[in-house]
Specification:
Blueprint: H1 2-16, H2 22-29, E1 44-51, E2 54-61, H3 66-77, E3 84-85, E4 88-90, E5 94-97, H4 103-109, E6 127-130, E7 142-145, E8 161-165, H5 167-171, H6 191-196, H7 198-204, E9 210-218
Antiparallel strand pairs: 1-2, 1-9, 2-8, 3-9, 4-5, 5-7, 6-7, 6-8
């Protein structure tokens, strides 16, 4: 009986924790040195991503890649990904997002890299990880594997979760532009995405699917 009461109390306390205010989110989003970015994420959390093709849910497991999971949690929390585009989608391989749609925000984070995590999971279908150009070069860009890309494991790409709902939505994101709309980080063809953001992509690649909103939907 006492254990049940304690469990209920814990649930109440968790539910009562204040969410970030609009001012707090805006401040942290524009300042990578804000104390928010040093806070750990929950051990396991879920993120619902609403798109022009429907919604899907990512489940992140912090133990797989703590640094990556922490950064992603707070990027979602501050609204970094809202109103952006799936700018690099290669059918049967991956769907990539993670450059802010508004250039003033994208520029703040363009070179805010953080240290690597060891690879503890494989890049199989349904997992997700950070895109990067080399060691310790992860920033904000995320790819979701739509095929088996386990060859990336040896290159240091560390998945930290998987799609738990809506994989069909990810599979159906528009892939007609392939590399032309987003290029690769390694290829150095993303300049206009940072300089012009949504305006550039919507003008030159109007069929790209939109990431309307990303939100934390489960703290456990």
């Amino acid at each position: 009986m006492r254990q049940a009461a304690l469990a209920i109390a814990c649930i109440f306390v968790t539910a009562s924790l204040p969410a970030l205010s609009t001012a707090d989110r805006a401040r942290a989003l524009r300042n990578p040195r804000d104390r928010l970015w040093s806070q750990p994420a929950p051990d396991v959390y879920r993120v619902r991503i609403r798109t022009t093709k429907g919604s899907f849910v990512l489940e992140a497991t912090r133990s797989l890649a703590p640094r990556g999971a922490d950064r992603f949690y707070h990027l979602v929390e501050t609204g970094f990904y809202d109103d952006s585009r799936f700018y690099r989608v290669i059918a049967g391989r991956f769907a990539q997002f993670g450059i802010a749609g508004h250039p003033e925000i994208a520029k703040v984070w363009q070179n805010e890299s953080f240290p690597d995590d060891p690879v503890r999971a494989s890049n199989v279908r349904g997992t997700f990880a950070y895109a990067m150009t080399g060691p310790d070069a992860r920033t904000t860009q995320i790819y979701i594997n739509t095929g088996d890309q386990s060859r990336l494991d040896a290159m240091g790409f560390a998945p930290f979760g998987r799609v738990v709902e809506g994989m069909d939505v990810v599979d159906n994101l528009y892939a007609g532009y392939a590399e032309r709309s987003g290029g690769g980080m390694r290829a150095g063809h993303q300049g206009k995405l940072f300089d012009e953001g949504n305006a550039y992509l919507d003008r030159d690649f109007p069929l790209l699917d939109k990431l309307i909103r990303a939100e934390i939907v489960s703290p456990h």
